[in-house]
Amino acid sequence: MTDIIQTRAEKDVELLSFRIGEQEYCVDIMSVREIRGWTRATPLPYSPPHVKGVINLRGTVLPVIDLSVRLGMDPIDGREQNVIIVVSVGGTTAGLLVDAVSDILTVPREEMQPPPEVGLDPSARCIDALLLVDGKLIRVLDLKVLLPNDARDVA
């Protein structure tokens, strides 16, 4: 019985879903460190347009990425109802500014479908998979593509 439960758990993926505008996205919950309310970021000169600035997170300087701009949409203004999702992947930690956190989803790995080929360079693809949940199409983001690789990408 334990083997069946363990096998089922290994096939499931837990995702944190959130909203940007009217669109739903999610990331692997294992990369999420915390969820915090909006904190005004200190802008950095010459940073890319998607870098809102930096915040002090318990003594650590954390870059805040406007995920809306990073995905090619209009910027998020940064209001009290907005949320910063602190994520860490491959040694890089950053805050993702989103409109709102929606839910924690547990989905079978086989329900995750690859995105269609639309002529993009595969190395620049930020959508890792697509899910259909309650009639809504949700995009699973690839944080390795979205997060800055090193300090040069932030400032």
Helix content bin = 10-25%
Q: What structural class results from the helix and strand content? A: mainly beta
* Overall radius of gyration: 16 Å
Q: What is the CATH architecture annotation?
A: Beta Barrel
Which stretches are poorly predicted, pLDDT < 50 over at least 5 residues? 1-6, 151-155
Arithmetic mean pLDDT: 85
Q: List SSEs in N-to-C order.
A: HEEEEEHEEEEEHH
- The multimeric state of the shown protein is single chain
Overview of the molecule:
This protein has a five-stranded mixed β-sheet. With 155 residues, it is mainly beta. The protein has one domain: OB fold (Dihydrolipoamide Acetyltransferase, E2P) (Beta Barrel). It has helices spanning 2-11, 67-70, 143-146, 151-154, and strands at residues 12-20, 23-28, 32-37, 51-57, 60-66, 83-89, 92-98, 100-108, 127-133, 136-141.
Q: Which features does this protein show?
A:
OB fold (Dihydrolipoamide Acetyltransferase, E2P); 10 strands; 155 residues
Quick rundown:
With 155 residues, this protein is mainly beta.
Helix and strand arrangement:
Layout lengths: L1 H10 E9 L2 E6 L3 E6 L13 E7 L2 E7 H4 L12 E7 L2 E7 L1 E9 L18 E7 L2 E6 L1 H4 L4 H4 L1
